Amino acid sequence: MAMLFEHQGHAPTVDPDAYVAPNATLCGDVRVGPGCRVLFGAVLTAEGGPVELGEGCVVMENAVLRGTRQDPLRLGRHVLVGPGAYLVGCEAADDVFLATGTRVFNGARLGARSEIRVNGVVHLRTVLAEDTTVPIGWVAVGDPARLFPPEDHGEIWAVQRDLDFPGYVFGLDRPAEGTSLMPEVSRRYGRALGRHREDRPVDPDGRPGGDVSP
Length: 214
Prior knowledge:
About 10% of the residues lie in helices and about 30% in strands. The protein contains 3 helices and 24 strands. The strands form 3 sheets. It has a 10-stranded mixed sheet, covered by helices on one side. A hairpin with a 4-residue loop joins β22 (about 140) and β23 (about 145-150). The longest helix is centred in the last third of the chain and has 12 residues, at about 180-195.
């Protein structure tokens, strides 16, 4: 039995044909479909928006999948999320491969059969066409996506700037030179994450429980 928690009135649901490791954590409106495998140390957390795994998905060790109010996280069928990957508020169509250490950000959309190779990054609001491959360590940014090696920071920024990360994710304007968004960002995150103080463990049938570890 995994560590399952109700968050803001929503409890995880796990198909009877799925396997979730005993030290994986599922929090809130998390939906694990048939044939899925969620391995050791993985965290699936619905921070205002659901996390949905379609049939046959595999989430490897220590991956983090986070849904947001603005952008739920949805995986299609037969998606593999590699060890240590981080996905937030994104969607992947069927048969997508996300290798070890990949990062996929808010509002990104990954077309069917896409491959994000080791340590690849898909930036926010980026749209990958079907059958796109992001090479090892490269960055995909824009709609439609453009692919850059990580050292091409200037070209990445030229596309990324108009995607407006602080406005889209935090609802904040870019700071003036010599100032920082971080005090307000930390306050907003603090308020939102403080809601976890009201979480409660549930058993695999969704009923309130105490210790849900094996």
